Amino acid sequence: MAAQGEPVAPSRPRQRKVPPARPRRRRDPRFSTEVPRRGWEDAVYHLDTGVLFAASVDAVCGSRMVRHYRGRLHTTDVIVAEVRHRATNPTNKPGVQEAAEEAVRMFIDGAAVAIDELGPGDVWMFESVLQQLRQLEAAQADGPASPQVRAKHGGEASAIVCCLREMDSGARVVFATNDGGASRVAHSRQVHTRHFGHLLNELVCAATYRNEEAFALFERANRITGVPAVARPQGEQDLSCQAAADGCTACVG
Fold first, then answer.
1. What are phi and psi of 193, to 5 degrees?
2. E strand or H helix at 201, and its extent?
């Protein structure tokens, strides 16, 4: 204890330990594992913008997809508007406008896809899915949603709602999207999702392509409409057909 009149040394402030920053939570895509390798022959396939672009990078691939899924390809009026916009508005990303132009020619104007529209009864579900998609992207960015994020995801939301509507009517449905966030939201609502690499694998299983051809196509398409790295095929072997003389349980399911 200091004597009376002696100066008292200032007390040192207590140092607080700063906790280490929590690692960002990894949110992997949730592409469906329930769908067999060769796909479902009776399923309706809803194509997102990215898959339409990917299938249109090569005109031969697009025409083979149209033939393989004849009568089973769907998209939405919102996605059609997005594709037409990209076809008529230049972008800095090489290959996108050309793919969009081919998608319009082959899939949309060529009537290879049925174009579904949302009805008044779908508005509540559309807003719910749209909010979920935007919140997921904002969470991945670790910050409030930017104006760009708030203006996105209408196409994916419309497709998921149309998938849900058809599922309610008893149809078997697959949502084809390259977007990892859209795959997670679809999965949370029990909608099966596949990306462009999966569709190419289905064509390999149908003997439309050899696996090395399919992988070369995937690599080419992935430059303009990327599948998340954790989900994309890493080589030709990942797009192979597992058929054997006694059948293929991996394909048939």
1. -125, 145
2. helix 196-205
Res 30: pLDDT: 87
* Residue 155 neighbours by CB under 8 Å, 6+ apart: 48, 49, 76, 78, 79, 82
Cα–Cα distance for residue pair 102/100, rounded to 1 Å:
5
Cα–Cα distance for residue pair 4/232, rounded to 1 Å: 77
List phi, psi (to 5°) of 179.
-85, 120
Q: Note the pTM of the prediction, 2 decimals.
A: 0.84
Q: Minimal CA–CA distance to 240: which of 208, 210, 197, 206?
A: 210
Q: Which of 139, 131, 180 is nearest to 24 (CA)?
A: 139
Among 25, 17, 75, 21, which residue's Cα sits nearest to residue 49? 75
**Mind listing the pLDDT tens digit for each residue in 172-201?**
999 999 999 999 999 999 999 999 999 999
Residue 36 contacts residue 250 (beta carbons within 8 Å): yes
- Listed in sequence order, the residues at least 6 apart from 242 whose beta carbon sits closer than 8 Å to its beta carbon are 37, 248, 250, 251
Residues 6+ apart with CB under 8 A from 239: 197, 200, 201, 204, 211, 214, 215, 218, 233
Residue 133's Cα: distance from chain center in Å?
A: 11
Q: Rounded to an integer, what distance in angstroms lies between the CA atom of residue 253 and that of residue 251?
A: 6
3-state secondary structure of 74: strand
